[in-house]
Structure formats: structure tokens, C-alpha cells
């Protein structure tokens, strides 16, 4: 089912670390609506009024005595009843999907804007994974210069936003939010990134790129 681009949301942007985008990119992109967040813990304080419940009516006693018969076999659950919990679990696990229209040159900047908004709305850095289909994110390029082991050690620590190329996305662990920047590369790379991102996103999947390309990939069964 084709996605409808989100209406632009204007928020005051908090100051924070952000990689400098490569020259030539256009940074003017729509911003996503913050995704679902965990329920806030109950606030301490005086408990509210408790509405009294009506006393249950006691059923009249049956004075007739009957001899209990042998216990019968337990009724087997119907196939539909057995399949219901699995279907409900699949529904709960499906992440919300948001599309941010952007050109390939502006998709990385749009992804950065999305990350900033997520952090401003209360998400922790360790909640966010960013995947790129074309040019790697400058942070990933810099960290990979220290070696593959050091790069993935930061992923395993899980205390900061992690940026990865779509080619190695299957190695990344699940996170609450996955942002995909469709910033170039073959359509197969976008399909691979969206497929992996959909399985790795726990609550929210944000896709930044050309709507026609993204809907074409999503319509192919991602």
C-alpha cells in the first residue's frame, strides 16, 4: 500500500552533536512526527478517589442434591483461538512507518534532521539506528578508519546513534527506531536496506528518499 508523505512539522531544534553534511546537499527537508514512545511511569502522589462497586448478588441456593459424575475430557481450543495470540503478537510487533520525501542528495540530511527530532522528543541515542544505501555517513567512515572491530564494538555498546551501510545492515541488532537514508546506490540496495530495517525497527521506521522509489520497493513485498 503506497505511503502518504507526512505533513511537515516545525519544531525548535535543540543544540547537539551532528555530523557536518557533505557539500552540495540541500538541508531543507520535511521533518517527521515523533513516533510512539514508552508509556510514562505513574507519578507519585495521592491516589484518586475509588468508585465503590455494587455488591454482587448471591445466587439462590439449590437444595437439590445431585451426585457428581466422572470428569469429562477438557474441551480442545479451536484453531482460530490458538492462532489469535500469534496474530495479535505480529500486529503489536509491526513498526509504524513514516516517509520523508527527499532527493538522493538530500536524503542523508533529512535523516540527520529526523535523528535530531527524535532526540529532542525524548529518544535516547541508543534507540536509533541509521542505514544508508549510497554514500556512507561521515561518522561511519571516520569510525571504520580505526578498524572493523572498534566500529562494531560501539554498535554492541548500544549507547549512541549507530550509522551503518545497507550492505552490512543484517549484522546490526534491533533498535526501537531505524532511519533509512535512500541516498543513492542501486534499487537492490534500497530494497535490502528497507527489508532489514523493517525487521530491526521495534517501534518506528523512518524512510528518507524519493517516494516513488520507496513505494516501488515497498510494493514489491518489503
Report on the architecture of this protein.
This protein is an alpha/beta fold and 222 residues long. The protein is 31% helix and 14% strand. The chain is built from 6 helices and 5 strands. The protein has helices at 79-93, 107-120, 138-144, 148-157, 187-200, 211-219; strands at residues 96-101, 128-132, 162-165, 175-181, 201-209. The model is unreliable at 7-29, 39-61, 71-78 and 86-91 (pLDDT under 50).
Helix content: 25-40%
Oligomer: single chain
What about the largest sheet?
5 strands, parallel
Strand content: 5-15%
Q: How much is the average pLDDT?
A: 73
Helix and strand layout, with pairings?
Layout: H1 79-93, E1 96-101, H2 107-120, E2 128-132, H3 138-144, H4 148-157, E3 162-165, E4 175-181, H5 187-200, E5 201-209, H6 211-219
Parallel strand pairs: 1-5, 2-3, 2-4, 4-5
Amino acid at each position: 500500500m503506497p505511503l502518504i508523505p507526512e505533513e511537515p512539522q516545525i519544531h525548535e531544534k535543540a543544540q547537539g552533536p551532528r555530523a557536518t553534511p557533505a557539500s552540495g546537499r540541500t538541508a531543507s527537508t520535511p521533518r517527521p512526527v515523533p513516533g510512539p514512545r514508552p508509556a510514562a511511569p505513574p507519578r507519585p502522589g495521592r491516589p484518586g478517589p475509588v468508585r465503590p462497586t455494587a455488591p454482587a448478588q448471591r445466587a439462590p441456593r439449590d437444595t437439590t442434591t445431585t451426585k457428581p459424575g466422572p470428569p469429562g475430557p477438557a474441551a480442545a481450543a479451536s484453531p482460530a483461538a490458538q492462532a489469535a495470540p500469534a496474530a495479535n503478537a505480529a500486529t503489536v510487533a509491526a513498526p509504524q512507518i513514516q516517509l520523508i520525501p527527499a532527493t538522493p542528495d538530500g536524503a542523508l540530511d533529512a535523516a540527520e534532521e529526523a535523528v535530531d527530532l527524535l532526540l529532542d522528543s525524548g529518544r535516547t541515542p541508543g534507540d536509533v539506528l541509521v542505514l544508508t544505501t549510497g554514500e556512507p555517513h561521515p561518522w561511519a567512515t571516520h569510525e571504520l578508519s580505526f578498524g572493523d572491530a572498534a566500529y562494531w564494538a560501539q554498535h554492541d555498546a548500544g549507547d549512541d546513534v549507530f550509522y551503518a551501510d545497507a550492505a552490512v545492515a543484517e549484522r546490526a541488532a534491533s533498535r526501537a527506531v531505524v532511519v533509512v537514508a535512500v541516498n543513492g546506490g542501486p534499487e537492490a540496495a534500497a530494497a535490502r536496506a528497507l527489508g532489514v530495517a523493517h525487521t530491526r525497527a521495534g517501534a518506528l521506521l523512518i524512510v528518507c528518499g524519493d517516494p516513488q522509489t520507496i513505494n516501488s520497493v515497498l510494493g514489491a513485498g518489503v
